[in-house]
């Protein structure tokens, strides 16, 4: 009986994490227009600030689903912002390297590269926290999910989405849920 209650509570918590991931993913593409008004801030620093909604979610997921102290959850949030910058830069780099390929293929490759980079750096950063699982196998699902969800970049570009996105809400919700399941005792 208690196992059924715990299972229902865990499912509800994962739904809350997924919903928060969708919300942070909706807010993410809205921030660049606002942050572009800040003068004198380097582009990568502004890009890191775009990741604040997801970094806040990661902070709460690390606090709720692990025994990490507050400083470790803050470190996970900062690592999330760094991973976001690296993911965007990886996607831009791969897009530039695949010059000559069709636009859809370039977007798929760039999305795969960005999704992999972001989720892998997040997994590495959280795994190194005091209460982070050290098993690479546990993190593989999160990295695979983030990599595959990165292909939604092609859909966003095909639809010409700028202030809205399919990529960010789906990617952030999926990776947040995977993070919660990895950290769950």
Can you walk through the features of this model?
With 185 residues, the chain is mainly α. The protein has one domain. 78% of the residues lie in helices and 0% in strands. Helix 4 packs across helix 5 and helix 7 packs antiparallel against helix 9. The protein is globular, with a radius of gyration of 17 Å.
What would you say about this model in short?
This protein has 185 residues and is mainly alpha-helical. It contains 9 helices and no strands.
Itemize the secondary structure elements and their pairings:
Elements: H1 2-27, H2 31-35, H3 43-50, H4 52-65, H5 70-97, H6 103-127, H7 136-149, H8 152-159, H9 167-183
Helix pairs in contact: 1-4, 1-9, 3-5, 4-5, 4-9, 5-6, 6-7, 6-8, 7-9
The profile of the biggest β sheet is: none
Content-based structural category: mainly alpha
Shape: globular
How much is the average pLDDT?
90
Q: What is the N-to-C order of secondary-structure elements (H for helix, E for strand)?
A: HHHHHHHHH
- Percent in strands: under 5%
Number of helices: 9
Described by its quaternary structure, the protein is: single chain
According to DSSP, the number of beta strands is 0
Give the tags.
disordered N terminus; 185 residues; globular; mainly alpha
